[in-house]
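Structure ticket #2291
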Amino acid sequence: MEEILEILEKDARTSCEDIAKMLKKKPQEIKAAIKKYEKDGVVLRYKTILNKELVKGDDSSVRALIEVNILPQKDLGFEKIAERIYSFPEVSSCYLISGTYDLLVIIEGKNIQTVSSFVAEKLSCLENVRGTTTHFLLKKYKEDGVILKHREENKRIAISY
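Resolution: structure written out below.
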């Protein structure tokens, strides 16, 4: 991967001037390269990683990883059914994987019931879906290479009699 992309992937807020200094190039060259990456669809979006556990008053949503076993369609393989699945607004990510299951689908919902309804009413009833296994995310320790610090728990003093 090109050096500019590696720098942006680690920290998208790195300025063109800073990248230019790191790579010993002119800022205009860096700006032009980034514009081209954006135009060509190489850089799709800039993302902020939030530690939602530390956001006060955040009614955190529930995230689930769903393994999906599908029957590939003749002459289309996995593409058409994957496209159908990733088109649902609840789906944040969808991957073709090796192993026992074919797709790994990541969704977010208000609560466990929302996720459960999605699986029962939208996902598992699709024509080529043969089975699903749902895993709920309980706690994040590291995301996209960033270690997340956790809120301090109230430590109770041991009482002895």
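Closing remark: Residues 98 and 134 are 17 Å apart (CA to CA).
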